[in-house]
């Protein structure tokens, strides 16, 4: 079975319907144009993802997470992934500023969902339900992914708010398991979400790297500690 190597992760299929998801210390931004390595980032993202998948499972969301398999590795259920990124936004930031005449930091009256087609050569273009249908993904499947994404948003937004952190936006990826169920896959980490300190607006996510806002590991460690209530034990 083929090992899949992405920019920040490796997925190693096992022969029992499971896979190892290994988080790398590599960081990339702007479709791979900006690159760097941060010692400890793989560990932090693996642990934060595991923690958030557990929170979601406890709240009734089906995820691919099975367990932690080492410092920067998770064991997950193998899924047939949809080539779609589902982005949920609560506050104006990032690429939304290019679409709506609203200032960064404006709270949205209700969450916005966006779909992107995962294709580096096209630069992950935004798509709608009609494009998805042409790609072989039915209206029903898209609606189910959107409905799960909104539930994830409700759970995580509240969870982070209780810890003084604003969940600004995030990206999810879904797949189908062997039983044909649509399941949340990939990762949920500061690489794939925007987290702002609710008081100061300080970024605790990959924008620190994208826009040179400070030390990435410090930001990810602060997020880890505020989320889990424990100091990070390893880099
Ligand atoms: P934006 O469209 O504003 O760049 O991103 C919206 C949210 O989705 C951000 O939290 C961002 O981190 C996440 N996101 C969107 N596309 C990608 C992607 O290709 N890779 C990663 N890691 N995150 C993404």
From TrEMBL:
Residues 3-226 form the SAICAR synthetase/ADE2 N-terminal domain. The keyword Ligase applies. Coiled coil: none annotated. One of its GO terms (biological process) is 'de novo' IMP biosynthetic process. Keywords: ATP-binding, Ligase, Nucleotide-binding, Purine biosynthesis. Pathway: Purine metabolism; IMP biosynthesis via de novo pathway; 5-amino-1-(5-phospho-D-ribosyl)imidazole-4-carboxamide from 5-amino-1-(5-phospho-D-ribosyl)imidazole-4-carboxylate: step 1/2. Signal peptide: none annotated. CDD domains: SAICAR_synt_PurC. InterPro entries: SAICAR_synt/ADE2_N, SAICAR_synt_PurC, SAICAR_synth, SAICAR_synthetase, SAICAR_synthetase_CS. It catalyses: 5-amino-1-(5-phospho-D-ribosyl)imidazole-4-carboxylate + L-aspartate + ATP = (2S)-2-[5-amino-1-(5-phospho-beta-D-ribosyl)imidazole-4-carboxamido]succinate + ADP + phosphate + 2 H(+). One of its GO terms (molecular function) is phosphoribosylaminoimidazolesuccinocarboxamide synthase activity. Its EC number is 6.3.2.6. It holds the Pfam family SAICAR_synt. HAMAP family: SAICAR_synth. PANTHER family: MULTIFUNCTIONAL PROTEIN ADE2 (PTHR43599), SI:DKEY-6E2.2 (PTHR43599:SF3). Belongs to the SAICAR synthetase family. This is Phosphoribosylaminoimidazole-succinocarboxamide synthase. The gene is purC.
């Amino acid at each position: 079975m083929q090992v899949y190597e992405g920019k920040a992760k490796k997925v190693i299929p096992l022969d029992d319907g499971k896979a190892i998801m290994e988080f790398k210390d590599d960081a990339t931004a702007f479709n791979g144009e900006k690159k760097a390595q941060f010692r400890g980032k793989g560990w932090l993202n693996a642990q934060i993802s595991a923690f958030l998948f557990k929170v979601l499972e406890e709240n009734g969301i089906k995820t691919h997470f099975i367990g932690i398999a080492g410092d920067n590795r998770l064991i997950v259920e193998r899924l047939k992934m949809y080539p779609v990124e589902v982005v949920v936004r609560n506050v104006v930031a990032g690429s939304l500023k290019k679409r709506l005449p609203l200032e960064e930091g404006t709270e949205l009256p209700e969450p916005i969902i966006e779909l992107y087609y995962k294709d580096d050569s096209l630069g992950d273009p935004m798509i709608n339900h009609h494009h998805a249908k042409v790609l072989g993904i039915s209206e029903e499947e898209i609606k189910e992914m959107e409905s799960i994404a909104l539930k994830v948003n409700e759970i995580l937004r509240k969870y982070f708010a209780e810890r003084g952190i604003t969940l600004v936006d995030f990206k999810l990826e879904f797949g189908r398991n062997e039983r044909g169920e649509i399941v949340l896959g990939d990762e949920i980490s500061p690489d794939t979400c925007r987290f702002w300190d609710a008081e100061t607006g300080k970024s605790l996510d990959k924008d620190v790297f994208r826009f040179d806002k400070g030390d990435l590991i410090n930001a990810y460690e602060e997020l880890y500690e505020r989320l889990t209530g424990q100091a990070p034990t390893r880099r």
